[in-house]
């Protein structure tokens, strides 16, 4: 609603009075000539620096010239800036210096814009804030001092946490980590009692490592050696494994907890429990108690929380180190008790870093000598005759170590140990290189098995075989010769021998032949063991060889039916292979003899031959019978020396030599041998021969 003319005049009269006495200085300046149109008393106080006549404000005159005379040109600079930019000016702490003192004002300059965008006036306001500034500056030293105290305390806390972090990195011993940590923390927060626990998974409890108590700590204060996970005596509301965050109690005595709790009964006030979790695993806990109430934002909780991560990490590393150390000691204890000699050699130094007692005893050194001397001092040069045993030259044991350090893997290599007293040991050595996680070779492990006794027994056995074979061969040859003479004389004289005499002569001849065959097989075994088994290869027609073997078997084993199966091979096709004909005949006869021996009279024996599958250039042989068969679990053993299947009748003759010789002969020709068998239905023996085996 509007006012009457008289009322408006009254309002205008009082408006001028109000503006004159308001505490905010106000002035109106006409632009662009900087003519001061009006200023109230507060603004005059803002500008006038003295009561001299020339200091009176030039109302209606140039404000710029007056400011130059009063040596305050910076005010005109502010007015020009606002006028030219049209942006208001504001300064919350504008200082004005007089001869008496400096005052502070809240100053603002606002442009009054015309409709055409021009600025005809500037409205200047100033408000005296000197009392507030002076009061603020009076309290500033006190505030700065308090701030400095807070910063110093924070730096002290961070320094203590850093000291904890550095100290726990210097040890992998849990006891030492615990004691050092508690000493640092105790010196900073001064608890009545502080304890570090580690997680004992086997006991499902926290186990105390160490604790620290203040001199005034009550004797009744609990010092728990174990804190069960499920029924904890700590003033913690949840089971231990469910507590993930710190537990803080400002004043335990002010809670509703019963006096039966050991901490309540001991008069504990402040209480802090810090679980030490690391990557989802509980590693332990820090428990601190105080004889006085504590604040939740106090240094005690901050110190314990700040240190907890470093302590948990240190406990993890200590636990892993201890587990690794225990595993190392356990493995060392196992190696120390092994009857085989074990060496671990280092690539960088060429020295032996580990040797067990068995290795020291075998090699003729003390453990100290083995692990302290360089390898070249442990292997004096040996003459050739010292490395020769039973006509064979063996590698010295040190060469196995050298080859191992060169990255070579060796399995079951016979080596010779010549000790300082010239005593000799024959060992079976194996070695393999050792690599780190980056694939870099760091050393090698070497294993020695003393086979001296075994080799001595084998040598005596071979000597016995050799002597026995030679001693048996002569009388057997004489018996076989006289039997053949009697048979031949009877035929020449056309005498009809009595059936008993004829049967006796035939039996003598057959058994002599069988005994000669056994003697030859035993001699072959002796040759194999002494590395004196050699093949005499020459081009041979395989078809002719097979036919000759089959005809000989048909004469000897008339109670069985024999057949020859040729798959994809023409009867007249020349199949030439470079083989030891005598040994291949021996192998075929051994397989056929076994087929005859372990199958019933009247059954069928098949001998087969075909080319191997492309691209291999080899021949495949097989001998199939309808005999007793071989159990599946015995098939891997059937080609071993002196092995006989369990289902063989004890009345059947044989030493378990034939199949072993078959395997050796075929392998040395570059082929391989295997079998398929079903108990009660028969067996099929297969072997292959290369068509073009190089002569050796």
TrEMBL record:
Molecular function in Gene Ontology: ATP binding; phosphorelay response regulator activity; phosphorelay sensor kinase activity; protein kinase activator activity
Topology of this chain in the membrane: Multi-pass membrane protein
GO biological process: osmosensory signaling via phosphorelay pathway; regulation of DNA-templated transcription
Catalysed reaction, written as an equation: ATP + protein L-histidine = ADP + protein N-phospho-L-histidine
Gene Ontology CC, one term: membrane
Membrane-spanning residues: none
Domain Histidine kinase: 467-693
InterPro entries: BphY/WalK/GraS-like (IPR050351), GAF (IPR003018), GAF-like_dom_sf (IPR029016), HATPase_C_sf (IPR036890), HATPase_dom (IPR003594), His_kinase_dom (IPR005467), HisK_dim/P_dom (IPR003661), HisK_dim/P_sf (IPR036097)
Localization in the cell: Membrane
Domain PAC: 90-141, 411-463
EC number(s) recorded for this UniProt protein: 2.7.13.3
Keywords on record: ATP-binding, Kinase, Membrane, Nucleotide-binding, Phosphoprotein, Transferase, Transmembrane, Transmembrane helix, Two-component regulatory system
Enzyme class name: transferase
Chief location category: membrane
Residue ranges of domain PAS in the record: 327-380
Identification of the protein by name: histidine kinase
Organism of origin: Thermosporothrix hazakensis
């Amino acid at each position: 609603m509007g006012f009457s003319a008289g009322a408006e005049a009254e309002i205008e009269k009082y408006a001028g009075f109000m503006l004159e006495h308001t505490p905010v200085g106000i002035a109106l300046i006409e632009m662009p000539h900087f003519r001061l149109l009006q200023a109230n008393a507060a603004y005059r106080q803002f500008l006038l620096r003295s009561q001299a006549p020339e200091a009176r404000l030039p109302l209606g005159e140039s404000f710029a010239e007056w400011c130059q005379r009063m040596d305050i040109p910076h005010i005109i600079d502010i007015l020009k800036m606002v006028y030219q930019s049209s942006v208001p000016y504001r300064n919350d702490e504008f200082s004005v210096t007089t001869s008496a003192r400096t005052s502070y004002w809240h100053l603002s300059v606002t442009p009054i814009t015309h409709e055409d965008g021009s600025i005809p006036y500037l409205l200047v306001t100033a408000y005296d804030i000197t009392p507030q500034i002076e009061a603020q500056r009076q309290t500033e030293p006190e505030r700065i001092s308090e701030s400095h105290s807070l910063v110093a305390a924070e730096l002290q806390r961070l320094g203590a946490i850093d000291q904890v972090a550095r100290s726990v990195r210097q040890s992998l011993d849990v006891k030492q980590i615990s004691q050092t940590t508690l000493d640092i923390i105790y010196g900073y927060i001064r608890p009545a009692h502080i304890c570090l626990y580690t997680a004992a998974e086997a006991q499902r409890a926290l186990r105390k490592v160490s604790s620290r108590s203040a001199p005034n700590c009550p004797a009744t204060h609990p010092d728990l050696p174990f804190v069960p996970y499920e029924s904890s005596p700590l003033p913690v509301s949840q089971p231990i494994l469910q507590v993930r965050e710190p537990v803080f109690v400002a004043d335990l005595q002010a809670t509703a907890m019963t006096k039966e709790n050991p901490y309540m009964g001991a008069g504990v006030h402040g209480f802090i429990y810090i679980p030490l979790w690391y990557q989802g695993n509980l590693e332990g806990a820090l428990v601190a108690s105080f004889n006085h109430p504590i604040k939740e934002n106090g240094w005690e909780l901050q110190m314990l929380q700040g240190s907890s991560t470093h302590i948990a990490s240190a406990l993890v590393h200590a636990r892993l180190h201890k587990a690794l150390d225990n595993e190392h000691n356990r493995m060392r204890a196992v190696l120390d008790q092994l009857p085989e000699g074990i060496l671990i050699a280092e690539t960088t130094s060429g020295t032996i870093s580990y040797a067990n007692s068995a290795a020291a005893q075998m090699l003729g050194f003390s453990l100290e000598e083995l692990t302290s001397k360089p390898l070249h001092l442990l292997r004096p040069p040996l003459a050739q005759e010292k490395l020769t045993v039973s006509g064979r030259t063996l590698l010295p044991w040190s060469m196995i170590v050298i080859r191992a350090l060169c990255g070579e893997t060796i399995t079951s290599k016979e080596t010779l140990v010549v000790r300082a007293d010239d005593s000799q040991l024959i060992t079976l050595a194996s070695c393999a290189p050792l690599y780190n996680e980056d694939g870099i070779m760091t050393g090698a492990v070497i294993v020695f098995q003393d086979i001296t006794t075994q080799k001595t027994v084998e040598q005596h056995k071979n000597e016995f075989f050799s002597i026995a074979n030679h001693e048996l061969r002569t009388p057997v040859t004489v018996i076989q010769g006289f039997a053949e003479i009697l048979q031949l004389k009877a035929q020449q004289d056309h005498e009809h021998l009595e059936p008993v005499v004829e049967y006796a002569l035939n039996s003598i001849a057959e058994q002599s032949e069988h005994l000669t065959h056994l003697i030859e097989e035993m001699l072959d075994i002796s040759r194999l063991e002494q590395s004196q088994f050699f093949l005499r290869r020459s081009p041979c027609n395989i078809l002719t060889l097979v036919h000759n073997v089959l005809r000989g078997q048909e004469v000897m084993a008339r109670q069985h039916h024999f057949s020859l199966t040729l798959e994809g091979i023409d009867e007249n096709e020349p199949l030439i292979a470079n083989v030891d004909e005598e040994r291949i005949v021996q192998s075929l006869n051994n397989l056929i003899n076994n087929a005859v021996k372990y199958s019933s009279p009247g059954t069928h024996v098949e001998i087969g031959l075909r080319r191997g599958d492309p691209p291999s250039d080899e021949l495949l042989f097989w001998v199939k019978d309808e005999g007793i068969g071989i159990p599946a679990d015995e098939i891997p053993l059937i080609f071993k020396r002196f092995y006989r299947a369990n289902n063989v009748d004890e009345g059947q003759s044989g030493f378990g030599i034939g199949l072993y010789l078959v395997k050796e002969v075929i392998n040395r020709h570059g082929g391989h041998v295997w079998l398929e068998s079903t108990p009660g239905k028969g067996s099929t023996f297969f072997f292959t021969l290369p068509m073009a085996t190089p002569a050796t």
